[in-house]
Specification:
Blueprint: H1 29-44, H2 48-63, H3 82-94, H4 98-105, H5 107-116, H6 123-131, H7 137-142, H8 149-156, H9 158-161, E1 165-166, H10 167-184, E2 189-192, H11 194-197, E3 202-203, E4 206-211, H12 221-231, E5 235-241, E6 263-272, H13 277-285, H14 287-297, E7 304-313, H15 319-327, H16 330-344, E8 346-348, E9 353-355, E10 360-361, H17 367-374
Parallel strand pairs: 4-7
Antiparallel strand pairs: 1-3, 2-4, 5-6, 6-7, 8-9, 9-10
The structure holds guanosine-5'-triphosphate and manganese (II) ion (2 copies).
Length: 386
């Protein structure tokens, strides 16, 4: 391949995901799905570096504006390491990759995926359980392990939480959240973030960012929202964290850490059928599914389902950064932060942007301004599906 005459690349692509427009699902879904499996497998092994390499390859392929037909078209493209290129070549030539197939059917991958699919269970915990021979939910339940409150809820609502949230369900949750937020703080603003803001048709949860145009009015808001949701019987589980962010003289927080310090709540909502027309329709069309779920929870033909919801409260002065940070995708965020540090000597977080050369924070009241500070062309939310 290296001795071949150099041809003009079929299509040009920039090396940072934040320099590209990446629609969902893209034109190379066979390739991106395969690379995603390898990335996930590496992540489940705790091998972050390897996972990131596959994620970058996946992101690059998703951003291409047409389908790759043969290996020659990969020439000149950035982000593709030797390993990814081998897998892609296999897929293009044989339609399958033996490595991907072996990964998908390996007991370790299957068990780790199942265990980390429990809300509240991370890679470390899942690994420990797998090492002890736990490969199924039944084995976990009889293992005698004591589970924390999040994990207990995760196990209880396992089926629901592993069924993708539809656009209609996300809209129904939006209506619920807006109603509650406006009742506890008139004038507060609720913005849908995460995958649904990027135009995805389904997701693993629904993410909201909440703010108020008068700085300070948002303080303590999360507790009022939770209290109201609870009084209306809309919450099955919640874990709230208070805001611990303070600007420091040395610059924007810890940009290497993906955790931010907003007031926020990881929760599980009880979405009833009457709040979601789609659910009612599905229940009518497929009574069998409802029966199976009822059997699993022992709740007897229940007219509701559990949905994961993230609520984040931001002061208005940090809102643009919070919105950029909570819209994703995860790779797009990582790449934007990497671009900021390496190409601009700036630290970007979900709270602020700090210019290390000028030794000062750069303010922004819109995402457009943040891209401009970073010297990046604006990428709309629907183009951030790297
Ligand atoms: P699905 O929910 O799977 O459909 O995709 P998603 O892109 O919405 O993923 P998710 O809900 O996990 O995260 C949405 C965005 O919030 C992503 O950009 C994440 O990087 C970001 N995010 C999630 N958790 C945190 C966190 O603890 N801190 C910060 N700063 N960002 C987070
Ligand atoms: Mn999400
Ligand atoms: Mn989320």
């Amino acid at each position: 391949q290296q001795g071949d005459p150099v041809e003009a690349p079929a299509f040009l692509a920039a090396s940072y995901a934040c320099q590209r427009n990446t629609p969902q699902p893209g034109h190379n879904t066979l390739l991106t799905a395969a690379l995603s499996v390898l990335a996930e497998s590496a992540e489940l092994n705790g091998d972050e570096g390897r996972g990131l390499a596959f994620r970058r390859s996946e992101g690059l392929l998703r951003s291409l504006d047409r389908r790759v037909q043969g290996p020659a078209e990969l020439r000149g493209l950035p982000c593709l390491g030797d390993h990814s290129r081998r897998v892609i070549q296999d897929l293009l030539e044989n339609g399958v990759s033996s490595e991907v197939e072996e990964t998908k059917s390996s007991p370790r991958y299957k068990a780790m995926k199942l265990l980390t699919g429990i809300f509240g269970v991370g890679v470390k915990t899942a690994k420990r359980w797998f090492t002890e021979g736990i490969c199924s939910l039944a084995q976990l339940e009889t293992s005698g392990h004591s589970l924390n409150a999040a994990q207990q809820a995760g196990l209880k609502y396992y089926t629901d939480l592993n069924q993708p949230v539809s656009r209609e369900e996300a809209d129904a949750v939006s209506v619920m959240v807006e109603g509650v937020v406006h009742s506890v703080l008139p004038g507060a603003r609720v913005t849908l973030a995460g995958g649904f803001r990027r135009g995805k048709m389904s997701g693993h949860d629904v993410d909201f960012l909440i703010t108020h145009p008068d700085e300070g009015k948002e303080e303590g808001l999360i507790h009022k929202i939770i209290a109201c949701l609870e009084s209306r019987g809309l919450l099955l589980y919640q874990q709230t964290t208070r805001n611990t962010y303070r600007e420091s003289a040395k610059g924007a927080g810890r940009p290497s850490s993906s955790m931010d310090r907003f007031e926020r709540c990881f929760s599980i909502f009880k979405l009833t059928n009457d709040s979601s027309p789609e659910d009612t329709r599905r229940a009518q069309q497929d009574p069998e599914r409802v029966r199976v779920e009822a059997d699993q929870t022992g709740s007897g033909g229940r007219p509701w389902r559990a949905v994961r919801v993230d609520l984040v409260v931001s002061p208005i002065s940090q809102f643009a950064f919070a919105l950029l940070g909570w819209t994703g995708s995860k790779l797009f965020e990582r790449e934007t932060r990497r671009w900021a540090v390496r190409e601009r000597s700036m630290s970007l977080s979900s709270h602020a942007l700090y210019d290390r050369n000028q030794e000062r924070y750069l303010r922004a009241s819109s995402e457009e301004e943040i891209f401009a500070h970073l010297g990046l062309e604006y990428v709309s939310p629907t183009g951030r599906n790297a």
